[in-house]
C-alpha cells in the first residue's frame, strides 16, 4: 500500500502537472512575442511556423530555442514563430494538417507520423559526434534502488504516450523481463515534459522516472539543481535522435532553404555559438533506418500487450 504521505504527494504532483506549475529551473527573461500556443492563423504566409514537442516544459522550451529561432528568422528573412502544444500527438496533428511548416518531434512520434500521414525527416542534430541519444531510468540520489527490477511495486513517471525515451523504452525494458507497466508499477502517470519528470524524482514525488538523456545531460551541465538530486540506474542502448521533420506537402523551395540553413549553421560563427550553447555539434541529414531499433521496440511492446489481453 502507498503511505498516506506518498499519496498526498502524488495528488499534489498530479495537480501541478495538470496546471503546469512545477517550478522552472531558472528565471530567464525571454521574448514571448514569438510563441504561439493557441489557434494558429495561417493567413500570413510570410511567417515560418515551427512546432516543438513538449520534450521540456513550455518556458524552458522558449529559453532553449529562442536564439535558434531568431537565427533562422534572420537567415530565412521571415519571422519565425514557435508553436507549442501539451502533447506529442498534438504536435503531430499540426504537421499532418499543415498548420506548421516544420516541427521538432520525438523519435517515436516521427515513426507514428510517417506511418500515418507521411511525415518526412528534414535534419537531425548531432550530439557528441553522433545522431543518437538514450533513455535514462532515474531515482532519487539517496534511494536504495539500484536496478530497474527493484522499482516493482513503486511509483513511476512517464513523459508522454508518444515519447520513446520517456515511455516506449522503459516499457520495452519491462517487457524483456516478462512484466508489463500496469502490473509492474504501483502507480504511473505522465508529466508531459522530461524536466518535470526529473524534478518529480528529485522532489521524491515518485520513486523513479524515464527521461531523455539529452535533457538530463544538458540540465546536469548547465543548471543541476534537480539532476544533482537524482541518480541514473539504467541507460538504454542508443536510439535515433529526435529529428526536425516536415509535412510531405510542404513547399519544396521552403523545405530546401530551411534544410540548407540548418546544415550550414555550424559553419557560421553566430550559428556555431548558438549550437554550442545548447550542446549540439551540428545538424545533419539522416536515413530513416536510424529509427529501426525504435520500430523493433514498438513491435515487441505491442506484441507483449496483445499477449496480455
Q: What is the domain total for the residues?
A: 2
Strand content: 15-25%
Number of strands: 14
Strand order of the largest sheet: 1-3-2-4-13-5-14
Here the CATH topology of the largest domain equals D-Maltodextrin-Binding Protein, domain 2
**Level-2 CATH architecture of the largest domain:** 3-Layer(aba) Sandwich
> Alpha-carbon distance between the termini?
25 Å
H and E string: HEEHEHEHEEEEHHEHEHEEEHHEH
Q: State the helicity in percent bands.
A: 40-55%
SSE class: alpha/beta
The value of Rg in angstroms is: 19 Å
What general outline do the C-alpha atoms trace?
A: globular
CATH homologous superfamily (4th level) name of the largest domain: Periplasmic binding protein-like II
* Mean of residue pLDDT values: 88
Characterize this entry briefly:
With 309 residues, the protein is an alpha/beta fold. The chain has helices at residues 4-19, 58-76, 88-96, 107-117, 164-176, 181-184, 194-202, 213-222, 252-263, 269-277, 292-308; strands at residues 35-36, 48-52, 80-84, 102-104, 120-126, 132-133, 135-140, 155-158, 187-190, 208-212, 230-235, 239-240, 244-246, 282-284. Helix 2 (58-76) links the parallel strand 2 and strand 3 (80-84).
Amino acid at each position: 500500500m502507498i503511505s498516506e504521505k506518498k499519496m498526498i504527494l502524488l495528488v499534489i504532483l498530479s495537480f501541478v502537472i495538470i496546471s503546469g506549475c512545477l517550478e522552472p529551473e531558472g528565471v530567464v527573461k525571454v521574448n514571448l512575442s514569438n510563441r504561439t500556443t493557441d489557434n494558429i492563423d495561417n493567413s500570413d504566409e510570410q511567417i515560418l511556423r515551427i512546432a516543438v514537442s513538449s520534450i521540456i516544459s513550455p518556458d524552458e522550451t522558449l529559453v532553449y530555442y529562442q536564439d535558434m529561432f531568431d537565427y533562422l528568422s534572420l537567415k530565412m528573412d521571415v519571422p519565425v514563430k514557435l508553436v507549442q502544444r501539451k502533447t506529442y500527438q498534438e504536435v503531430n496533428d499540426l504537421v499532418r494538417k499543415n498548420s506548421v511548416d516544420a516541427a521538432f518531434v520525438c523519435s517515436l512520434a516521427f515513426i507514428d507520423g510517417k506511418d500515418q500521414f507521411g511525415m518526412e525527416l528534414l535534419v537531425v542534430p548531432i550530439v557528441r559526434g553522433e545522431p543518437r541519444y538514450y533513455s535514462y531510468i532515474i531515482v532519487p540520489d539517496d534511494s536504495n534502488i539500484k536496478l530497474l527490477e527493484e522499482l516493482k511495486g513503486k511509483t513511476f513517471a512517464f513523459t508522454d504516450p508518444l515519447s520513446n525515451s520517456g515511455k516506449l523504452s522503459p516499457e520495452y525494458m519491462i517487457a524483456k523481463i516478462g512484466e508489463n507497466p500496469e502490473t509492474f508499477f504501483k502507480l504511473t502517470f505522465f508529466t508531459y515534459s522530461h524536466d518535470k519528470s526529473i524534478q518529480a524524482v528529485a522532489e521524491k514525488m515518485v520513486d523513479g522516472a524515464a527521461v531523455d538523456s539529452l535533457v538530463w545531460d544538458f540540465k546536469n551541465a548547465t543548471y543541476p539543481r534537480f539532476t544533482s538530486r537524482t541518480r541514473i540506474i539504467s541507460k538504454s542502448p542508443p536510439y535515433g535522435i529526435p529529428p526536425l521533420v516536415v509535412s510531405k506537402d510542404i513547399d519544396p523551395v521552403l523545405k530546401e532553404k530551411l534544410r540548407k540553413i540548418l546544415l550550414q549553421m555550424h559553419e557560421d560563427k553566430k550559428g556555431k555559438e548558438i549550437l554550442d550553447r545548447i550542446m549540439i555539434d551540428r545538424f545533419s541529414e539522416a536515413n530513416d533506418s536510424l529509427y529501426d531499433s525504435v520500430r523493433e521496440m514498438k513491435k515487441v511492446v505491442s506484441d507483449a500487450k496483445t499477449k496480455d489481453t
